Amino acid sequence: MGVRFPVIVTCFCLLACNPLEARHQSRICWYKVLQEIIRSLNFLKEQKVSCKQMNVSDIFEDPKENNQSEMLCKAAAVLTKAQCFCQECRHLKVIRVNLLELTRTVRCPVNTTSNTTLHGFLERLTDLSQMIMKQNLVH
């Protein structure tokens, strides 16, 4: 089987792409992923889900220790654990996958001694996501 024409054209365009244009496309993609995270978080806040009262690790207890990328990665790890116990929240998976897409990291260790409710965790994650969005829109 030969390679189809659209695949060849796509590969050629990607190879010939201006690096500045590639950075711009990456920024647009990043912006859309972050928008989807915020949209999903806001949707979850509106939902009546029993597992929002479950305890999860509070990665936000000392945010000065971590940079934003580490915080997002740790948030994905917390959501991975929460997702196991909260089958009714399929939006947790969407948020987790998008967080991993942003950080491009597979694993982040979460070593916290304090807990918070999933509801509180989602509120703080929304705040962090909105702050990152605002900071990057300015630059």
UniProtKB/TrEMBL annotation:
On the tree of life, the source organism's domain of life is: Eukaryota
Task: Output the InterPro entries linked to this UniProt entry.
Answer: 4_helix_cytokine-like_core, IL-4, IL-4/IL-13
Q: Which GO terms describe its cellular component?
A: extracellular region
Q: Name the UniProt key words of this record, in alphabetical order.
A: B-cell activation, Signal
- Cited Pfam families: IL4
> Residue span of the signal peptide, if any?
1-22
Q: From its record, what is one biological process in GO terms?
A: B cell activation
* Molecular function in Gene Ontology: growth factor activity; interleukin-4 receptor binding
PANTHER family under this entry? INTERLEUKIN-4 (PTHR47401:SF1)
Q: What is this protein called?
A: Interleukin-4
Name the species this protein comes from.
Answer: Alligator sinensis (Chinese alligator)
